[in-house]
Amino acid sequence: MIKHQSGMRFGWWLVIALLVSSAWSTTPVAAQVEKTGPAAEIRALLDAQGAAWNLGDIDGYMAGYWESEKTTFSGASGVSRGWQSIRDRYHLKYPDRATMGTLVFSNVEITELAADAALVLGHWQLERASGPVGGVFSVVLRKFPEGWRIIHDHTSVVQ
Questions:
Q1: Most buried of 7, 72, 85, 116, CB within 10 angstroms?
Q2: pTM above 0.90, yes or no
Q3: Phi, psi values for residue 57, rounded to 5°
Q4: Distance separating the N- and C-terminal Cα atoms of the chain
């Protein structure tokens, strides 16, 4: 009888060990998908935009947008149509490094809508000497031969 109990104890330990090891072995696979799939490419685009913004480079930031007259931006001041119009709006609203502040994206959620389309929701925050400002955004992206680009941006300030 003692042998039976130790055998059962061993069996339970084996089951637990297999469950734990299988959980660990699936984590790298999920991480690899995140590192190589569309979501990772989109995160890289947002990271590049944030880095350009934080260097005071609005044109670098705009590289994440589709350079087309069909690109749109919606915000408190209305709808801007066309890449150039959106660029001009950013330059007017953020004329210098101090007004640009330091940009941080958070709570980013990426939803693939199709092989070449995605929706991103998230929060943005600008840390500035004049005080922080932030809000929410939703962007629609499309994959072009040169990579993912924002085709529509809706950004709102949250008080």
A1: 72
A2: no
A3: -105, 85
A4: 70
Integer-rounded Cα radius of gyration of the chain: 23
Domains in the chain: boundaries: 1-36, 38-157
User: Residue 152 belongs to what H/E stretch?
Assistant: strand 147-157
Lowest mean pLDDT among 27-31, 69-73, 84-88, 143-147: 27-31
Bridge partner residues of 149 (DSSP): 142
CATH class of 38-157: alpha beta
Phi and psi torsions of 153, nearest 5°: -130, 125
**110 Cβ contact list (under 8 Å, min separation 6):** 38, 39, 42, 43, 118, 119, 120
Structure tokens at 36: 């190589």
Summarised one tens digit per residue, pLDDT across range 83-130 is: 999 999 999 999 999 999 999 999 999 999 999 999 999 999 999 999
Q: Which pLDDT does position 40 carry in this prediction?
A: 97
Q: How far is CA 51 from CA 25, 60, 78, 82, in A?
A: 33, 9, 27, 23
